[in-house]
Design a protein that fits this description.
2 domains; alpha+beta; three-stranded antiparallel β-sheet; single chain
Length: 91
Amino acid sequence: MGGPATIDELMRGCRRTAVHLEMRDAYMWPLETFFMFDSEQVNVELVSAHLTITQPHEVRMYEHTFAALADLAVYGAEARALITAAIAALG
């Protein structure tokens, strides 16, 4: 991943109003990741494939999943505190 310089960039980035930085505790990186750019398309990355989801009922499933993950995340001062703790842990 990155070192202190990358973490410093995160700290600066999360102060920008156009940036939505989400922090979650994770013991393992998820095997499936997805990116939503709007309510019409979701890009899904699997271990062995890349999918483009466009069926409205499937897109809604990812919207619900995104909302559930967002509820688990920390933002603002809490996110900056986690980043600061990571910087301290790096020494």
